[in-house]
Amino acid sequence: MLTRRQLIKAGAATGVLAAGSASGIALAEGSGPAAADEPFGVPLRPARVLSPVRQGRGRSKGWYDVYRLSPKEADVGVLPGTTTRMRLFNGEVAPVIRATRGRPVFIEQTNALDVPFSMHLHGGHVPARYDGHPAEEVRPGGSRVFFYPNEQRASTMWLHDHSLEAHTENIYRGTVAGYLLTDEFEERLPLPKGRYDVPLYLRDAKFAADGSLVYAMDGFRDRPTLLVNGSPRPYFEVAARKYRIRLTNTSNERAFLLQLGEGDEMTHIASDGGLLPAPVSARVLEIWPAERQEVVIDFSRYPVGSKIVLGNKLAFPGEAPEVMRFDVVRTAEDPSSVPDRLRPVPDLGTPTVERTFVMSFDVATGQHLINGKPFDPERVDLRPRLGTTEIWTVTNTDTRFGIPHSMHTHLEHFQVVDRDGTARAPGEAGLKDTVTVMPGRTVRFKLKFTDYPGKFMYHCHLLGHMTMGMMGQMEVVD
Ligand code: C2O
Ligand code: CU
Ligand code: CU
């Protein structure tokens, strides 16, 4: 195997960034001396698709599926030669539910952790009582059944904890599951399917020498091990054909600016809320915590035997930038293609309400604030009306410490309108539910409250910030 130094010599993961970022976010050039770990020593762990424990037929909604997802502690092999105690759904790293629009899912859950748990379907359009509101926490040993109607359009979602005290650490310790919703519209498109449709869950972590996870809420600069589906900088054997790669960033705080090889083309096809209106050719792909980005990569342009590194251009100085490697090991038939048009964004209506959100860090208290206030579960910050379209203007005023923030809305997806008055980039033209705002910047987006009244959260998805107050609560009213 090549050493890391040889790889760098071969230019596999270095080079100056020429392209701009899709969203206009300023880029930091990163890459430095090797970390201790040797990349590409382990194969990618496939994200296992769960089978329902039961199926049934309801009186009004037809067939439904019942799954079981219970968070518990489990020992898994992550780094070679060690085991790591993690907090995992069913004791598995990133299990995946594949669901279909129009067919509801129930999830039965017992919380086997010794901390509270409040499961949230990130990206889900679900009734308030199943949304993982902190008030819905399941105590240790308690049980709950969740109901996801699946009446929204196809998209890549994920499940994670939203409990008030423990969500940041639970997510860090691994309690994450994928939730891939498809629908007829998407199924009819000739995109890669089946084993060529691959979910990848990216994150960072810090391990002690004995393999245990080291957690500090504010330790984001010191998590040098990158994991894909729980495998450290793995290699993934692919056929020389097109793949649909569904990326989800489950890190607490880390951003990735992904580059394939020397900046080889990826075709960006989807974001948080599903397919883009049209594919976008991308040389780099930016993905912040909780975001989803999907690309089609055509490996047929590489000869069998090629090894192509996926690197992170936002690595901190001194960190190894390699995320994973694609090894082209065989040829294969490829009936798939990427159509010129994918899926139009639904009409979100004409906005009649405008709201502003200022994200800031309070040095005096160490709290992160929205509009000058930390989260208060007793306070309702806004009351959107059902059927109303709103414009949200989100400004990050943290120029002094250079702290990035994001805004994530529960319940409804939104469409970015502009950034600092400049029209959105094509890669941001689809539906989103999480958007990053760099220091001194402003983003505006539009969203419509369609149905489901009740209390829902919105917050920064850099989890340390959210824990330290950067969250608000809206009550959607009739
Ligand atoms: Cu990813 Cu409030 O959630
Ligand atoms: Cu969410
Ligand atoms: Cu933040």
Could you explain how this protein is built, in words?
This protein is mainly beta and 478 residues long. Helix content is 5%, strand content 40%. It is built from four helices and 32 strands. The model is unreliable at 1-36 (pLDDT under 50). The protein binds CU-O-CU linkage and copper (II) ion (2 copies). The site of one copper (II) ion has 7 residues, from loops. CU-O-CU linkage binds at residues 120, 122, 160, 162, 290, 408, 410, 457, 459, 461.
Descriptive key words:
single chain, 478 residues, Immunoglobulin-like, seven-stranded mixed sheet, six-stranded mixed sheet, globular, disordered N terminus, binds CU-O-CU linkage, binds copper (II) ion
The order of strands across the largest sheet is 13-12-11-15-20-17-18
What is the CATH C level class of the largest domain, in words?
Mainly Beta
Name the overall outline.
Answer: globular
Using only C-alpha atoms, the radius of gyration works out to: 21 Å
Which architecture of the largest domain does the CATH hierarchy give at level 2? Answer: Sandwich
How do the strands and helices of this protein lay out in sequence?
Elements: H1 4-9, E1 54-58, E2 62-68, E3 71-76, E4 84-89, E5 96-100, E6 105-110, E7 119-122, E8 143-148, E9 155-161, H2 167-172, E10 176-182, H3 184-188, E11 197-205, E12 225-228, E13 231-232, E14 235-240, E15 242-249, E16 256-260, E17 266-271, E18 274-282, E19 284-287, E20 292-298, E21 307-312, E22 322-331, E23 353-362, E24 367-370, E25 389-396, E26 405-409, E27 414-419, E28 422-423, E29 434-437, E30 442-448, E31 454-459, H4 463-467, E32 471-476
Parallel strand pairs: 2-6, 5-10, 11-15, 14-22, 23-25
Antiparallel strand pairs: 1-2, 3-4, 6-8, 7-9, 9-10, 11-12, 12-13, 15-20, 16-19, 16-21, 17-18, 17-20, 21-22, 23-24, 25-30, 26-29, 26-31, 27-28, 27-30, 31-32
The structure holds CU-O-CU linkage (C2O) and copper (II) ion (2 copies).
One copper (II) ion is lined by residues 120, 122, 408, 410.
